Amino acid sequence: MYAPGATGFASGYGAPVTTSLFDGKTALITGASRGIGYGIAAEFARGGASIVIMSRKPDGIAAAADQLRAEVPGAKVLGFAGNAGSDEDRQAVVDTAIKEFGSLDVLVNNTGINPTFGPLMEADLGAVRKIFDVNVVAALGFTQLAHAAWMGEHGGAVVNIASVGGLRSTGAIAAYGASKAALIRLTEELAWELGPGIRVNAVAPAVVKTKFAEALYAEREEESSAGYPMKRLGVPQDVAGLVAFLASDAASWITGETVRVDGGLLATGQLA
């Protein structure tokens, strides 16, 4: 039996891309100052891509860019502070990517928010609108801009970060789950509309150990982990490797798919 902490893929902690898989390509990753987004950015940097990372807080995105350069010597990294929910900021970051690196080959829509918990009948509709605006509408907005600026003529790949909450009822995070279900459906529609030049896929993680998801596991990690066949929660690298695959030429005949990266959770019929 493979034990957590062993080396290589068998450990269950993923294996970073260390080849020139994305040499000469540019990737824009939103929500990338920490957590899953940062892990994805690091994966693309190790694969040779020029990367543009975006997040709201200037200090956070600057620190993330510096950390990436330290982790991946020679990495071409540009940090952009902006709000994914802003039409102006979306346009500005896409324009910046093209200006600085000359292309925009990969778009990873990772930005997500969840400001409300509890039953839908008690949900603040303003908060729900904000969830859908950032988690769904912004992803479409970024894709429209990437298509207009580069991908429509040159091709590319889009990967949307959804959630297993978009595939099963979630109870306490119902509004968030509904937004991720909408993102999954958007992925399918975009794949149909933008093929064959642009592939569009989604990744649906279960609970990943990040600051964003901390409320879901902080006081019961051992209990939660026991419900997964892999007997642990996810880490950002688990998601990052799959995103890199879907964006690469190795996935050249894959589009419109939502791939679960959930430690086998949904195979058990549960949603912990």
Automatic annotation (TrEMBL):
The keyword Oxidoreductase applies. SUPFAM superfamilies: NAD(P)-binding Rossmann-fold domains. It comes from the Bacteria. One of its GO terms (molecular function) is oxidoreductase activity. InterPro entries: NAD(P)-bd_dom_sf, Sc_DH/Rdtase_CS, SDR_fam. The keyword Oxidoreductase applies. Keywords: Oxidoreductase. Belongs to the short-chain dehydrogenases/reductases (SDR) family. This is NAD(P)-dependent dehydrogenase (Short-subunit alcohol dehydrogenase family). It comes from Herbihabitans rhizosphaerae.
